[in-house]
Amino acid sequence: MAALPFSPYVRVAMDHWLLPGAPIWERVIWDYEILFLKQGELEVTVENSVYHGLPGDVFLFKPGQRHSIKVTSPAPADQPHVHFDLIEQPDSPEVTVSFKLPEDMDETEKGLFREDLLSGADLFLPNFIRLRDPLSFETILFQIIREFQMKVPFYEIRLKGLVLDLIVFLLRESQWLNRLEEPDHLSLLVEIQRYMNLHANRDLTLDELSRQFHLNKHYLIGLFKDAFLITPMQYHQQMRMERAKNMLKFTKLSMQEISDTLGYPSIHSFSRAFKNKEGRSPSTYRASLSQAE
After folding, report:
1. What gap in Å lies between CA 248 and CA 281, rounded to an integer?
2. What burial class does residue 228 get, using C-beta atoms within 10 Å of its C-beta: 0-12 exposed, 13-18 middle, 19+ buried?
3. Sign of CA dihedral 66, 70, 76, 78
4. Could you give all domains of the chain from N- to C-terminal order, each with its CATH number?
5. How far is residue 10 from each of residues 7, 96, 99, 163, measured CA to CA in Å?
6. What is the pTM of this model?
7. Is pLDDT above 60 for 48?
């Protein structure tokens, strides 16, 4: 996926209660809105789709999408939300939140719609997500709300990072985690990763991982590859190479000392593994860093 120049601009961030008799009538907005249902129940219509929202659900309204919101629970609904441009523009501070339909807008207002960058083939978020981990999402969202309301020094920079955190969280919840057969597999994969991190200083075999986690080798490879798009052994080798590059860059350890630290049987096997992964020897890599300074 090509790098995208995201630099979010937060327009509104607030914790808001919606009363049963005070719906948000059908409208379109110029920007994005992420709405989190913390308490109560909602009926949310986006274009021709109707969603029944329960606590822990997230709704994403995209630029130009018709949508409406009404409370279906007897008590008010707590629905903290954030309006934002995914890429800050010169007019971002002047643009407000729309409560209109396109047919009620003048030509100037019709020109305020932001490009929808979250509906592509590589980067796609649906309008409705039922979260597996709503507490983590809520933590990030309320950090955004606090930063926006308090406006302490450098809050604009902090907000950009937090909105990107929120989007990545939703992308992983809606796309990456859906590749796993069972939700419990995520915690297992995290444990496997942690084990490999703890043993980055030596060779690790698939047989050892299979015994350690009581998994068939072929099943382990498939599960790991479905989640991370590489095999466990490729991940382990990649991790060791990243550690080697950090030691070459930030320490004055000799090649032999780095080889020993990472558990290679000889400096020659270390050099060969490094060259196979990086396309050049460890010494050439370190020399190139000195030349770049």
Report:
1. 11
2. middle
3. negative
4. 9-179 (2.60.120.280), 184-292 (1.10.10.60)
5. 10, 11, 18, 8
6. 0.68
7. yes
**β-bridge mates for residue 77, sequence order:** 18
Q: What tokens does 245 get?
A: 């590059």
d(CA 217, CA 249): 35
Q: Is the pLDDT of residue 175 over 80?
A: no
pLDDT of 278 > 70? The answer is yes
Measured distance CA(54)–CA(143) in Å, rounded: 22
> Judging by beta carbons within 10 Å of its beta carbon (0-12, 13-18, 19+), is residue 31 exposed, middle or buried?
buried
Give the whole-angstrom CA distance, residue 198 versus residue 1: 30
Question: What is the phi-psi region of residue 56: left when phi exceeds 0, alpha when psi lies from -120 to 50, beta otherwise?
Answer: left
The full length of the chain comes to 293
Q: Model confidence over 137-158: pLDDT tens digits? A: 999 999 999 999 999 999 999 9
pLDDT reported for residue 40? 94
Region class of 279: left (phi > 0), else alpha (psi between -120 and 50), else beta: left
